[in-house]
Amino acid sequence: MRAAFLTATEGVEQVELTSPWQALSDAGVTPSLITPEAGEVQGFHHLDKADTFPADLAVDEASAADFDVLVLPGGVANPDELRQDAKALDLVRGFFAAGKPVAAICHAPWTLVEADTVRGRTLTSWPSLRTDLRNAGATWVDEEVKVCTAGPNALITSRKPDDLPAFNRTVLQAVTRPA
Is 148 a residue of the active site? Predict the structure, then answer.
């Protein structure tokens, strides 16, 4: 099993990257960090710089066909940057088209809004995205973790770092459940 973690090179909420990464790694899933440009990702603890992480692939080298799940960590600047990158949006759409699970936490659904993949879906997020998601045709709920299967794939969403234990368990269930 392989997991794609898609982030911008700056602005990712570090714990929303590292916690699911570790949970998937511990379960034997191989994670790969994908960014718009090769290089490093600057993690953040809210607005403060944290650690850096080496990217494994640039987005134009990645394909949904090579992975079993897409994980989109949050952070305010991260999804705002990704939603302006056509190749990143194409990669996101590729996971939906292939019927593969997509997991997004906190502010990450902004990328899904721009990729036009939330219409008719029910999801959660950081509360400030509620209006954006509704305007994009989604139903927003305030829940620790929401799994929506009313579409081509499982869409797993959570609100914030405090939800990571439930988010991680749910992502693991989605990728380790026998087909």
Answer: no
